[in-house]
Amino acid sequence: MTAPANIVRFHQEGPTATFKVDGRGTMHQSTSMRRQAEAFISAGVLHINVDLRDCTYLDSTFLGTLIFLDKQLRACQGRFSLIAPSPACTKLIHQMGLDEYMGEHADAVSPTTGWTELPASGNDGQTMRRTVEQAHQELAALPGKAGAAFEEVMRCLNRATPPKPE
């Protein structure tokens, strides 16, 4: 059996946009997914679904990006939902203590046609670093045990390359 491709697709229908993750959700898809989701929100989309039924793994940058999008939608009275997270994703979210921060769970059926594949990450090093930092800041800002682990990650990131003065 071949490993699934790491692809994120999206589909918009009215005020709802759905992203579908096939394979692994990683930092390499995070920037393009965030940009597309922000464009949807700017255009008036009030509900974003992320279909994880065929997702085999989520890295911390991708998870932080999902939390960022949930916060963005809440700020404009929108709604963020995970659709049918795979057992692997459910286990990972639970192990990281992120259950209550990952939006609501829905069993909604996602569209079968009309998907557009997000472009592969063409991020320069600076954009990738900014995406990683912002995602981990979201995770570090979570209360309790979930955020505490990522506070240390942020300290390590800042020691590796201190932020530039504004």
**Rg, nearest Å:** 15 Å
CATH superfamily heading of one domain: STAS domain
Give me the strand/helix succession. EEHEEHEHEEHH
Helix content: 40-55%
CATH class of one domain: Alpha Beta
User: Helix segment count?
Assistant: 5
Roughly how many Å apart are the termini? 50 Å
CATH architect. name of one domain: 2-Layer Sandwich
CATH fold label of one domain = Transcription Regulator spoIIAA
Tell me the overall shape.
Answer: globular
Our estimate of the beta-strand percent is: 15-25%
What is the number of E strands? 7
Structural class: alpha/beta
Describe the largest sheet: 7 strands, mixed
Mean pLDDT: 85
Low-confidence stretches: none
Give a short summary of the structure.
The protein has 166 residues and is of the alpha/beta class.
Description:
- By secondary structure, the protein is of the alpha/beta class.
- It has a domain at 7-121: 2-Layer Sandwich (Transcription Regulator spoIIAA).
- It contains 5 helices and 7 strands; from the N terminus they run ββαββαβαββαα.
- Strands 1, 2, 3, 4, 5, 6 and 7 form a 7-stranded mixed sheet that branches.
- It is globular, with a radius of gyration of 15 Å.
Can you lay out the helices and strands and say which pair or pack?
Elements: E1 7-13, E2 16-25, H1 27-42, E3 47-51, E4 55-58, H2 60-75, E5 79-83, H3 87-95, E6 104-106, E7 116-117, H4 125-140, H5 144-160
Parallel strand pairs: 2-3, 2-4, 3-5, 5-6
Antiparallel strand pairs: 1-2, 1-7
Helix pairs in contact: 1-2, 1-4, 2-4, 4-5
